[in-house]
Amino acid sequence: MTINERIVQIAKSYISITEITPNAGFSDKSFEAEMRAIGWLPGHPWCTYFAELVWMKAYAGTEYEPILTNLFSGYALITLDNFINSEFTVSQTPFTGSIAIWKHGFTDTGHAAIVDTVTSSHIFSSIGGNEN
Hints:
5 strands, 3-stranded antiparallel beta sheet, alpha+beta
């Protein structure tokens, strides 16, 4: 299994978990404990923390694990900037297992999700947190 397939497999394992709105916690307390261990706190949007959790589990025990710890942030756009300035490839073309990051208009906020499947160069489905 490739690392990208592993990322998607891990993301899919969390699909049935629901949020206690608004960003107050999760229906699955073991998932909530994993999210808190990554750095999520009640009240915070959790899409980027979800991507971090999935990637950290997929890369656990590899040489990339300590590098990833410093790249993720609770904010999607800061995470994007961190990845742009890293050894990871950043592209506008999605691929399975990558992190898609959207910017909300002209604001300094965004959204992150894991790319699940790609049907053409710019059409894909994703699995993300804070989406329910």
